[in-house]
């Protein structure tokens, strides 16, 4: 029967979950997830729900789903099958596309506080570190996979990260488990499969400790990453100006320290971390730009914009809308053109309001002002960035311009607002965060 099973490694330490929450197991039917499901069925049978993702990429996919359903029935574990479409043109390639589709589907089935359990093990961790080394990742990437991490709306749990795959196989054989061997797992067209089949065995013939060393690299990188985050948090406390960063503070830092803060800041705002080349361009094209320019640098899912001494991060904005005009007659919300957010009122406007874009050369007299002044000058004095100005809603009544969002309202609007519309807000994300502005 072979070596004895180390049940200590497979005695899973369940995370502390709120009452009523579930453990969803990503169950492919392969060796690893079969062992994970079997162990959880023994330790927490009333909380476990198996989810099988049907990618439809292989002819045997239907048969695999049936086999998974039968295994769950035998264990008396609830089972769900979810079909997903894999984007063949995904920028991350077929592996990345399948992984993204899988995680998106699993996340959609989770409720607040639920835990998604995956069967990543020690060998997977070593492969991940080697793959990231070859791709030139930074310290955060070399930290590898964490046993427990946030995964909105709940948690992602990898309880087998300390367990070698050989131990999982021994357990499955002793328990008489049946599992699926996916040919994709040994297909050399895929980077991870090639590393698993060709590179790691060769490394371990010459360096028997290779797998353990790679896992140790992940542990050391995780420690270093934590220290870098502590330093970045300290720097952020000095450089942060609300949701923006002070350009002057960034320029006073050494280049590595500035890059560390930018990576930390962007991760905190859930944006993709830029490449080394993009980080260098932030310094030369954005931070070092003349104060009267409007520098902008974009990459996947994010763009940086500078205004005066402030650096903003936000989702890429669509082009500024051309001159537009809306009539607000129904509902307590008015959706503005793409990229401009929306207006939200306490009640439906009565009478109807005209909402439009600002006009070139326009003047406005806010409450308390001695006389009308150029809107451009009012925007400058209020510190409104140029990309916000061109998307700012202006509210007109029969008496003319009554409100310019971000600037103020007329004395008459101030006196009559409660009877016309009640509390009014402009909500947008033009400065990197949702910005409610009372009007």
Summarize the structure in words.
The protein has a six-stranded mixed β-sheet, sandwiched between helices. Strands 7-8-11-10-9 form a five-stranded antiparallel β-sheet. With 439 residues, the chain is α+β, with helices and mostly antiparallel strands. β13 (333-335) and β14 (342-345) form a beta hairpin. It starts with 22 loop residues before the first strand and ends with a strand. The protein has three domains: 23-213, Rossmann fold; 242-314, Chorismate Mutase Domain, subunit A, CATH 1.20.59.20; 325-438, no CATH class. It has helices at 31-43, 61-75, 93-108, 122-134, 139-142, 165-175, 191-206, 210-239, 247-252, 255-268, 276-287, 375-382, 386-389, 411-420, and strands spanning 23-26, 48-54, 79-83, 115-117, 148-151, 154-157, 240-241, 244-246, 296-299, 302-307, 310-314, 325-328, 333-335, 342-345, 353-356, 363-364, 373-374, 394-397, 400-404, 408-409, 424-427, 437-438. The chain is elongated, with a radius of gyration of 28 Å. The model has no long low-confidence stretch (mean pLDDT 86). α1 (31-43) crosses α6 and α8 packs across α10 (255-268). The chain is built from 14 helices and 22 strands.
């Amino acid at each position: 029967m072979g070596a004895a099973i180390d049940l200590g490694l497979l005695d899973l330490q369940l995370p502390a979950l709120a009452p009523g929450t579930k453990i969803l197991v990503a169950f492919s039917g392969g060796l690893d997830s079969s062992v994970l499901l079997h162990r959880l069925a023994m330790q927490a049978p009333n909380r476990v729900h198996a989810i099988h993702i049907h990618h439809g990429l292989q002819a045997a996919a239907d048969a695999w789903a049936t086999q998974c359903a039968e295994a769950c029935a035998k264990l008396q574990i609830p089972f769900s099958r979810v079909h997903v479409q894999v984007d063949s043109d995904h920028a991350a390639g077929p592996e990345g596309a399948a992984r993204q589709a899988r995680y998106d589907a699993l996340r959609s089935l989770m409720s607040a506080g639920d835990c998604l359990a995956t069967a990543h093990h020690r060998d997977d961790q070593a492969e991940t570190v080697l793959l990231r080394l070859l791709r030139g990742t930074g310290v955060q990437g070399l930290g590898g996979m964490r046993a427990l991490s946030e995964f909105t709306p709940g948690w992602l749990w990898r309880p087998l990260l300390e367990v070698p795959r050989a131990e999982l196989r021994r357990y499955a054989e002793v328990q008489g488990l049946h599992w699926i061997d996916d040919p994709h797992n040994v297909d050399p067209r895929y980077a991870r499969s090639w590393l698993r089949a060709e590179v790691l065995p060769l490394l371990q013939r010459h360096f028997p400790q290779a797998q353990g060393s790679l896992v140790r690299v992940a542990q050391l990188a995780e420690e270093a990453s934590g220290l870098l985050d502590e330093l970045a948090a300290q720097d952020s406390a000095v450089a942060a100006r609300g949701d923006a960063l002070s350009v002057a503070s960034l320029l006073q830092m050494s280049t590595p320290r500035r890059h560390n803060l930018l990576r930390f800041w962007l991760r905190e705002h859930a944006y993709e971390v830029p490449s080394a080349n993009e980080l260098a361009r932030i310094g030369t094209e954005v931070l070092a730009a003349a104060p009267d320019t409007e520098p902008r640098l974009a990459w996947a899912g994010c763009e940086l914009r500078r205004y005066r001494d402030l650096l903003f991060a936000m989702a890429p904005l669509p082009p500024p809308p051309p001159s537009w005009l809306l009539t607000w007659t129904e509902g307590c919300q008015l959706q503005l053109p793409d990229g401009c957010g929306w207006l939200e009122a306490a009640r439906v406007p009565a009478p109807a309001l005209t909402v439009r874009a600002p006009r070139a050369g326009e003047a406005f007299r806010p409450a308390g002002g001695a006389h009308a002044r150029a809107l451009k000058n009012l925007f400058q004095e209020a510190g409104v960035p140029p990309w916000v100005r061109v998307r700012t809603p202006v509210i007109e009544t029969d008496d003319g311009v009554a409100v310019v969002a971000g600037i103020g309202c007329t004395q008459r609007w101030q006196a009559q607002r409660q009877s016309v519309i009640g509390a009014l807000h402009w909500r947008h994300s033009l400065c990197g965060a949702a910005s409610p502005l009372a009007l």
